[in-house]
Amino acid sequence: MQIKISTVIYSLLVLLAFAPFRSAVAADDSATRQGVLIYSLQSSPAENSITLKLLGGKPYHLALSRELDAQNHVVVLDAVLEKGNKTHAERNLLNTSPKSHGYQPHLFAALDFANGIEKSAYGNLRVISLPELGISVELKVLEVKVTGISTNPSSGAGYAFTNLTIEVRTRTLSEDMAHNHTQ
Questions:
Q1: How many CA atoms, within 13 angstroms, populate the side-chain half-sphere of residue 29?
Q2: Could you tell me which of 137, 163, 155, 165 has the C-alpha nearest to residue 27?
Q3: Between residues 10 and 138, which one has the greater pLDDT?
Q4: C-alpha closest to that of 162 among 37, 41, 44
Q5: How confident is the model at residue 102 (pLDDT cuts 50, 70, 90)?
Q6: Residue ranges per domain, the chain?
Q7: CA 183 to chain centre
Q8: Measured distance CA(52)–CA(170) in Å, rounded
Q9: What is the pLDDT of residues 43-83, one digit of tens each?
Q10: For the whole prediction, is pTM greater than 0.85?
Q11: C-beta separation of 8 from 103 below 8 A
């Protein structure tokens, strides 16, 4: 799945314009901690993926997929959830709107973190509801480092990842509904 960098940049600008209006959602201890995804220039593929054990004990594979620019800089990381232990699914289960375009909660663009985690379009926590699985997935950005890069003379500077650490938690949708009503 290729994502045009210009589409991500446009989507970021739109989201940043509405960022003050986004609702704050806090992770708490009632969610099940599944693990940590780590991308760094030195990370192994094993650190970029974890196996989630969901309802009924069925395994799901969650990994960070790299999107590269023309100079092979990692400019976007896509959190991809697949059934079983597959590594190349036909459909990313976190992409709840496959026909949607633009910056989605499962996408992490280096440009979005240029001014820090808290000033990014989604903040440090992204919650993705998956009704077909009966759960929500919480992706909490713990640490991020980006570096400025020159993409090409006509487009100016961009950003690439050097590090991204994401804590992954899940909760059943019934827990999620109860959690949201108590806030």
A1: 0
A2: 137
A3: 138
A4: 41
A5: confident
A6: 5-181
A7: 24
A8: 9
A9: 877 778 999 887 778 889 999 999 998 889 999 999 999 98
A10: no
A11: yes
Strand partners, 147: 160
| Among candidate residues 143, 131, 169, the one with its CA nearest the CA of residue 28 | 169
Q: Characterise 107 by phi-psi region: left (phi > 0), alpha (psi -120 to 50), beta (else).
A: beta
53 CB-near residues (< 8 Å, 6+ apart): 34, 59
Give pLDDT tens digits for 110-120. 999 999 999 99
Q: Which residues contact 108 (CB under 8 A, 6 or more apart)?
A: 64, 76, 77, 78, 79, 141, 161, 164, 166
The pair of three-digit structure tokens given for residue 178, joined into one six-digit string = 């109860």
